[in-house]
Amino acid sequence: MSSILRRQVFRAAAGSMSTVARSQIQAIPARLTLAARSYASTSAVAAAEAPLKSNVSTSTSALVSSTKELIINSHRIVAGVVVSRQPLILRDLTPFEKEYFSYQQNLERDNAAPFGAEFYFKKGSVAERRWKQQEAEKNASLSTSSTQPSSKSSSKAAESSAAAEGDELTEEDRVAQLEAKIEFNDRITEADRKNDVRSLERALQRTLYLIVKKPREQHAWQFPQGGVRAVENLQEAAGRELQEECGGNMDLWFVGRVPIGHYIYSHPKNFKTEGDNTVKGTKVFFMKAHIFAGQVQVDNKEIVDFAWVTKQEMKDYVSPDYYEAVKDMLSDF
Amino acid sequence: MAAVTRSARTLISLRGSAIPAFQQIRLASTAAKKGANTKDNQESGKTVILEPKQEYTTGISRLREHYRGTVQDDLMVLTYSHTFKPKAKIPEGVRIELKGNKHIKPAPKAPSPRRIPELVKIDVHCMMKEALVSKYNLLSGFMAIQSITGEMPEIINSKKGVHPWKLRAGNPIGCKVTLKGDKMYQFLDKLVEVVLPRMKEWPGLPESAGDATGNIGMGFPPSALSLFPEIENNFDMFPRMTGFDVTFTTTASTNLEARLLLSGFNMPFQQKIRSAPVAKAPASPSIDSASSA
């Protein structure tokens, strides 16, 4: 499936729903300059109309520094991004599923309406010959045993028969020979074998999430996250933080403008903030985004490392408290 | 003309799948009852019951996996209403009357993970004017719909007679297939990946698509039928191309949800290019300058 098309399409639909999915935290009238991203344009006005929250402790005078951090109820507001790479291939079937599907296939075959082969294939054509051959193979495999017919042997048989009738080599035969040469990619990639967690080509059947490592001892691994400034909404803050930490070389689509989860923690006693001593803790709001192309660029200032991990692997990276807070947002598959 | 008669003759002389169709069309006008939808198979002497159809899940469905893995989660985020207030309940036993000409819409329900919009079924329906002249003209459309959906269509008889059109009540006039489960997802997949991208100058579904109760319908011209790979390879065998309608029935309760769901399956939608809303007067110029700085 062309992921780019999917993104455009999703965006197109999301354009009409900006009034529904509006960021819940609108502290200061958002900037009136129109956002470049597609559906943000219509909601900029809506955001500006959102009333001021009464419990905003930042100075609500008109002269607000654009870099001033947003503090509500003596909690720092932080925006995080859960960037996910969706599964690229279908999952492996369980043995039970395999059995079940083959059983259902046989049932369907037995109960199917008769197939009008004369209608679909011209008499004496290559297509008809090939179809008859396939039918014979299927019947043979059904009658002998219930095991799966091996596709390799059948394709070999088809090749040998085509080679036998080499004197009447038609266009269709040539196409069939080309088709036989098509090789399928492995479901386990090079990145899986090397266990390269930075590659987006790993664990194709699973949903992967981006976590980044910050240059510190404790709580080093986290989702990309950073403080919300007083003049922006959650989505803008999330996009900006991602740009700052991971570089602009990622094609992302934010799913809606509302957070999908949050994490509240109180600061330790000796924790120093930049000036405001009234801040007691932090509230992290997580936005959801999908990645379609690109990769993270490490700048070694804000982050020193990154990894694309599944939910289960994330447990080994992040702190237990953090994992407990975010685990319900993540997909098990 | 010769080609038409040849293929028509092939259609009629078929021993395979066309015979049930043929039989069904013949039955459709003679025996009005649906219960007569059985026929004797001449080869084996067994009775083949055409209805009810059985559904078989013969494999893992790509679009269903995509729905469960990705679309469902995203729809939950996109359509969740954080400020939902339930309307007053209508007491039991109170009859809901029509409001003007329209039914009063059911009250919106609280957002819940159990109420995420889902595709229920796809109806493929065609009506052929040619069937007015001879009911056997319907065979071509019947076979075409059967080819593209992989299911045996059911014949639609006209409910009313319309004299100017020479239509009599009870005559077969069209056919219809209801797809559910795997077949539904396969058809949607084919439509979105193969057919729609090749429809020239089709701009996509309009932004206003939907019937306000979560169903979306679209019509196809006769030329679109030949874009299906099943028809394309046997184009000569179908003497009459017919237009057809496709209706997506979903559990969504609004147009928006239904459109979001379908767009999650890659269905193209037109995007209205809105002119940028003109800001009347910047509320606070200092903030504006601060953010641009």
From TrEMBL, chain A:
Major localization listed first in the record, in broad terms: mitochondrion
Alphabetically ordered keywords of this record: Hydrolase, Mitochondrion, Ribonucleoprotein, Ribosomal protein, Transit peptide
Keyword Ribosomal protein in annotation: yes
Disordered: region residues: 132-172
GO CC, alphabetical: mitochondrial inner membrane; mitochondrial large ribosomal subunit
Similarity comment: family membership: Belongs to the mitochondrion-specific ribosomal protein mL46 family.
Name the record gives this protein: Large ribosomal subunit protein mL46
Organism: Entomortierella chlamydospora
UniProtKB/TrEMBL annotation, chain B:
Cellular component terms per the entry's GO annotation: ribonucleoprotein complex; ribosome
Domain Large ribosomal subunit protein uL5 C-terminal per the UniProt entry, residue ranges: 172-269
Keyword Ribonucleoprotein assigned: yes
Keywords for this protein: Ribonucleoprotein, Ribosomal protein
Molecular function in Gene Ontology: structural constituent of ribosome
Family indicated by similarity: Belongs to the universal ribosomal protein uL5 family.
PANTHER family per record: 60S RIBOSOMAL PROTEIN L11-RELATED
Designated name of the protein: Large ribosomal subunit protein uL5m
Naturally occurring in which organism (per UniProt): Entomortierella chlamydospora
